[in-house]
Structures are given as structure tokens and as C-alpha cells.
Amino acid sequence: DEETITLVLAVIRKLSVDDRDFTRIVVEVVSEIRTAAEDEGEDSDAMMESKLRCLVIARGSLETLQHLEEQSPMEAVLSEVIIPAMQASEPALRESGVRCLGLFCVLDKARAADFMPLFIHGVRNGHAELQLKSLQISFDLIMLYGMEAMAEKLSDVSEIFSLISDCSEHSDNDMQAVAVEGVSKLLLAGVLTDSETLQSLILLYFHPSTYGNNQLRQCLTFFFQLFCFSKESNQQALRQVAVSCLLMLAQVHDDLDATLVYAMVTPLQIGQQLIDWMNPTKMIRSDTSGSAPVVSFAVYGDFAIELLKTALQESQTNCKLMVQLVNKLIIDESVPRETLKELSALTKKLQEARRSLSHATASDRVGDATTRRTLEKLRNAFSKLVPVDAEETPVSAVDELDELLNSDLDEGEATPPAPKKRAVTDARSSSPTPAETRDEIDQLLDSDMSE
Predict the structure, then answer these.
(1) For the chain, does the N or the C end have fewer beta carbons within 10 angstroms?
(2) For the segment 385-408, what is each residue's pLDDT rounded down to a tens digit?
(3) With contact defined as beta carbons under 8 Å apart, do 140 and 106 qualify?
(4) Residue ranges per domain, the chain?
């Protein structure tokens, strides 16, 4: 069995002078097994068993080697055992052959580039087990040698991205989990840096279609914590795609069938999780000086700007969601002054948008009382954080009321004529007699009626 073969190979490895001597012995053993099977004219089952035994020996040998020398004896095993197994019609042979070929490619970069198209073909067209193994090997080789090196023999590097995308959305849970695990490793290693890939993982993590795929969700739970808390740039990368992910997932949640509501958390909970992943206080820091690290909440400030800008353009429901999330962010003096100014201006603009739509119903973007109170609270908080310059004195509530009253007067009746105002002023200043007062009242009434 495989365990016995592994132990025998370990003994041979210990007794060998070096790697070349070890591989020479292995090649001789494999050759003898193949020759004996052919000479004895074994039936198909016995021949199948001999081929599988040779593949197990080849795999065990490759697992013990650290590198392959030029013109290594293992080249004979590759051409005479491994490649024929890949071309066989029996699934067991093909699966064992692809595992051996993967190990061979790990030891030889040039061979890895040569056989990368074959692994992609295995993912696209192989049976279930072959697809899984080919996909795992593809990710391992990309991790080891890089995307560009593995795309040398492909017609276009987009073939790899297309493969990753297709497998991430695969209907089979195991394929989907392997694909997500591979993509997560590539993102952590910096091999993949595009925002679309990160966005895809966020959507997969919260989407109801992955509710029952525990392996995928456990992998992503670990990934997001490690990814976001290891580098500030990773938190910024998450921030750049967070709002678009929120909007897409909010739409999915709105369209969700009532019987599947359990399979997805609410958009507010999704937003809170994204905020937690952006929390700079949870960063893994290498400073061992013992002093408390200086924490900047600049990433929260940038995220708040994007949320408020989105709130100005979205429906009432999404606007309320954005305002609620801004209210859960930590915004303090560590946020750059220009960011604070912009936050204050955006909050004011959002309030003005509410006032301009105060008579609207369905189209009112911030019509509910809770959102109005939250906006007022946010505006006051941002204003306190922004020092007031002489040139930037904010308009007080009294000034706003005066402007509103003046605009109403301009749009309504004309201002009463000056003589009337003087008459009243004179009356107040000279303390008129009751008769004089009655005469003035009669004059005012007569003038109003005539008008």
C-alpha cells in the first residue's frame, strides 16, 4: 500500500549518497515494475495496479526531493509514466498522474510554465476529482512562480483570471471553496492586487448562495481578519470597494425571497462588519517599544465621505443606511482637517437636500425623523472638530431663519410704505392721546381698504 511504499522510499533516501543516486534507484525500481508487468502479459486490472504502483513511487520520490538537477533521471519517469497516465482514460490514473506532474512542476519552473495550459484544461474538462486537483496545483504554481511566469505559454494572461472567476462562482461547493482559498492566498501574498478580486470575495462572503458552504466562509473569515489587520494599505483597499459592495448586497437583500431571509444578514450588519475590518486599532503592529501606538482614523474619515456622497444620490432606504453607518464611525482629531471640512460640508448639503424635498414622499431621500436627527448630530460633531476661521464663519441658525423670512417676504406682499412705519414710530415715541390713536387707526384701516 501507499504507506508501505512511503516508508521504503524513506529508507532508500537515507541509504543514498545524494539526490541523483536516490533518483537513479527509484527510476530502476519503476522500470523493473513496468517491464515485469509487460513480460507477464497481465490482464487489464493487474496492469492498472502496476501503473498505479509506479505513480505512487514517483509521487513519493518527488515529495522527498528539494530540487531537480539538469538531465535528472526523473525525466524518464516523467515521459514514460506520468505523461502516459495523464493521457489515460481511467480517472484514477489521470488523477494520480496530475498529482505527480504537479510535484514535478514545483521542482522545475520551466516545466511548470510548459504544463500550465494542461492544468487549466484539466480544470475545465476533467472529472470532479481531477478538476479539484488541477485547480489546487494551478494556484500553488502561481503562488510559487508568479502570474506572469505561469502565463508565458498561455495565449493570454486573462485565461488565468477567467479561470479564477469561473471557479469562484462554481456550482460545486468544493470547487468554489478551493478557488476562494487559492484567491485568498494570492491576495495575501500580493500576487493579485486588483480591487475586483477583493470585491468578489466580499460578495461571496455575504451572499446567500454561499450560506451552506462552511469551508468557504471559514476560509474567508480567517482571510479578511488577516488581510485587513496586517497592512494599512489593505484597509484602504477594502474601503475603496466597500460602498459598491454594500449597494449590491443591499439590492440582493431586498430581492431575497422571504423563505431565504435566514441565509443573509441585513445590510446594516454587513456595513458594521466592514467597519470592523477597517478598524485601525486592530492592526497587527510590530512595534515592541512598549509605548502606545499612535492610531489614525483617517480611513474612517475617507469612508465617511464616500458614504455621504452616496447618500446624496441614493434612495431613501439606502440613504438612511449610509447615514447610520457614518454615525458608527470613529471620527476624531486624527482625521485630516481637509477631510473634516468636507464631511461638514457634505452633511450640510445632505440636510439642505432634505429641506428642498421636504414636501416629497417616496422621493424624499432623508425624510424620516431618525435620519434627520442623526444628520444634525453628525453636523454638530464635525463642526466642533473643524476650527472656525474668520473667513469661514458658519451661518448660525438665526441667520438661516432671517434669510428664510427675507426670501418669503420677497416672494409675498410688498414691504409696507414708509409713511405708515413713521406713523407708528411717532405714535410710540410721543405717547398720543386716545383720540389721536383712534384717528391714526382709522387712517390705517382706510388706507388698507383702499389698497
Answers:
(1) N
(2) 886 553 343 444 334 434 443 444
(3) yes
(4) 295-415, 418-450
